[in-house]
């Protein structure tokens, strides 16, 4: 049987790599866009400030020191000889830049990075084309988003989270999508394994009858072949019922007196092991009579098969649920096997010893019927033997105190 896990791995890997490529491209684009926007806005603010102070220089109304505005705290006026004639308090005594624009290119942008200090974003304006024109510098220290790599770390973290989340979601979605196919593979494998033995036995019996007609009783061969055919038919019927239950096929539902149904089923089948039924109160459910009869029959047959002296079936209600417990006085079921016995074709050693012709599908069918009725079927602790407990929603309007 081919494994589908590599398919899930491949899908997840491809999708994760694709998402990684996309988020890397988007992350780099966003990083560049943010950096460009912040830098451009800083230069535009500096340009507005430098043009305003250039107008003040031309009219010879420059205060000392120069007051600053929000976002532009570095302003400096330098004459043609390179002397600082006026500045804002934050500039200190050193020139902000040695750049002196040419007369034909008066307005310039400049990034100055002094050693050991953060870079400064400046806009430089030559006040006039004349040779003795002063120059005005305006700007601010480079914002931390541009001076550090914090933005890249944030983008990388977001990209990593998105990639991991997409990989996890892809793994979950593909796993959920492939689960029915995986179940079909397992069903095909286990079914072929279970059918192989009776088919092989049937072939041996028929071939033996053909090869040794004088030594084989045809009547015995036909009887054994019919017995094997009955087992094959039972397996096929159970598989078809499982397929209908797990395929969501609807069955006609009706109001059912669960206590009466349990009592009838306990008396229907003749068996040397007695079944005692205890019903407390009126317990009504809404469901398929045929399916519930099959469920109860499976549980009682299983209990009788493993019981030593008898089986007790209790029907009660409480907390909005109908509760049916089927308890035998046999050797019980090990806690490690309590969930495994509900799997298809699983038969414990004691079950195979007591009934070699069983299909191993009865409990799987019983649990599926319980789920189809929005109920549960599980094995719970018991002082002796095994105790199967079925819980189904009570029919509305008929719930009575237990």
From TrEMBL:
It is an enzyme of class 2 (transferase). Keywords: Kinase, Membrane, Phosphoprotein, Transferase, Transmembrane, Transmembrane helix, Two-component regulatory system. One of its GO terms (molecular function) is phosphorelay sensor kinase activity. It is found in: Cell membrane. Its main location: membrane. Residues 190-396 form the Histidine kinase domain. It comes from the Bacteria. Pfam families: HATPase_c, HisKA. SMART domains: HATPase_c (SM00387), HisKA (SM00388). The chain crosses the membrane at residues 12-34. PROSITE patterns: HIS_KIN. It catalyses: ATP + protein L-histidine = ADP + protein N-phospho-L-histidine. One of its GO terms (cellular component) is plasma membrane. Its EC number is 2.7.13.3. This is histidine kinase.
